[in-house]
Amino acid sequence: MFPQGWPGVGLLLLRAAVATGLPAQGLGTSEALSPLTLAAWAIGAMLVLGVFTPWACVSYCAMAIVALSQAGNDDLTLLLVLTGLCAVALALLGPGAYSIDAWMFGRRELRLPGERD
């Protein structure tokens, strides 16, 4: 659940790439601080830090679906779909060892009754 080494670095880079997706697509760059703008930046911060990563990815996908319904540009549609797929992959893979989730929840070892050391 929390891979270390190069796989952990790869997950860190994937979190950063997905986190920049919403603001880069114009969802978080409007002049007024709308609730959608604040949500896009909050989700991005959660993903970069690795806080509640699966929930942040689900929120990202929901916002991407809303943005897809409003998108008129073909390039923007492709970018939304690709970053949405990356968010799904990140939700399935987990945050990696270099995240706050790993620090909060850590690795656990389950021992069944009757097992010997």
Q: Can you describe this structure?
A:
The chain is mainly α and 117 residues long. It is 67% helix and 0% strand. The chain has 6 helices and no strands. The chain has helices at residues 5-19, 21-24, 35-49, 53-70, 74-93, 100-105. The longest helix is centred in the C-terminal third of the chain and has 20 residues, at 74-93. The relative contact order is 0.21.
Strand content: under 5%
Low-confidence stretches: none
**Share of helix among residues?**
55-70%
- Tell me the Rg in angstroms: 17 Å
Apparent shape:
elongated
The number of helical elements comes to 6
List the helices and strands and how they pair.
Layout: H1 5-19, H2 21-24, H3 35-49, H4 53-70, H5 74-93, H6 100-105
Helix pairs in contact: 1-3, 1-5, 3-4, 4-5
